[in-house]
Amino acid sequence: RRVLFRSMQTVTRRATKQCVALGMLRGLPPVAMKQFYIATVASKMDYAASIWYKIQDRGQFAEKMLEGVQRLGARMVNGAFRTAARVILEAEAGLFPITIRLRLKIMRYTIGLHTLPASHPWWQLRRNIRPTTTKMMSPLRRMLKEFERDVRGPKKTTLEVIQPFSRPPSAGNAFEATIITADRDQQPRKS
Fold first, then answer.
1. Nearest CA to 159 among 151, 167, 168?
2. Percentage of the chain surpassing pLDDT 90?
3. For the segment 117-136, what is each residue's pLDDT rounded down to a tens digit?
4. pTM, whole model, 2 decimals?
5. What does the alpha-carbon distance between residue 140 and residue 5 come to, in Å, rounded to a whole number?
6. How far is it, in rounded angstroms, from Cα 75 to Cα 82?
């Protein structure tokens, strides 16, 4: 817990520094500021959230630390006064609250794991997880328990398997085009 606290302090400090730098940009519309905030600050705060964020522990200290940075970032996006409430700032800037944003990120990650091919090492790990363990759950087990219904759906359907490559890397240039001419007798040429 102490290690997590120190790493969260580091993340919060870096994200705050990035927010302050973002506030120095002048003359940008709020849409551009929001895009900068999401690309620079939110991505730093959310990095590896599937490992450190505990979904079941609402209002934990990590969430509280990140809410301060989110408030500062929403203030920079809107150009609002210091006394404005965080909830109002988030709504005005069009930003998800921290809990919802982290939950969505972890749910996307979980669904992404379940769309891997059967030959992927993830499925071997998945089969070895004991569902009966309730004490000292790993972050992976906690994540799977939380999003089991979302992954399987109401009718326990399977997700589409997404292959890692749409075409093998050895297939050549992916942007190769064949130009077909109006004259059918002429040989098609490659560009």
1. 151
2. 3
3. 888 888 888 888 777 766 77
4. 0.74
5. 20
6. 7
